[in-house]
Every structure is written in structure tokens, then in C-alpha cells.
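seq as requested:
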Amino acid sequence: MDETTTESPEHRLKRLHMRSWRRGMKEMDLILGHFADDRLARLEAAELDLYERLLSENDQDLYLWVTARIGAEAPAGRSKPDPALEPMLDVIAAHAAARFAAD
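C-alpha cells:
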């Protein structure tokens, strides 16, 4: 049986929070970790599902997808996100942009 089918909502949030801060690429730790700190507990179930799918993506791709939404130009030839993930990428990018603007 898959662990995620039997875990409590609290355990799921803790697991996703930890995965957000321990990505392997420091830039994504900072983007997703702060997002998780500020917003994860307020996401609806469907949004959590999208966020969890997003966490399974490659960090280098995620970084380019998020920063491209903030205004950085993505290099040609890079992969494109699954269209289903784009709304969550927009939310994360807006959160990151607001944090960068505040600094």
C-alpha cells in the first residue's frame, strides 16, 4: 500500500514542507521552502495534489519555469512544464517575486 494513501493531512503537510526545503538545489530550496512556510497549509486539496506533482519535477527545470514567470528569459531548448502545473507555477512565481521585491 502506498504511504500517501494512508497518511494524515498533517503528515502530508510535514512531508511536503520537508521536500520543499530539501530539494538539492539551493535556489529551489529558497523558492519552494519559503512558499511552503507561507502558503502550504492554506492550499486546497487539489492544489496540494498539483504541488506534490510539481515537487517530483527536476530542479533545473523547475527553476527555469519559475524564474521565467518572474521575468527572466529561459534558455531555448529547455523542457516545458505540463500545462496542468502552470497555475501552481504562477502562484509560486508570484510568491517568489513578492519576496524578492520586499528584500
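The chain has six helices and no strands.
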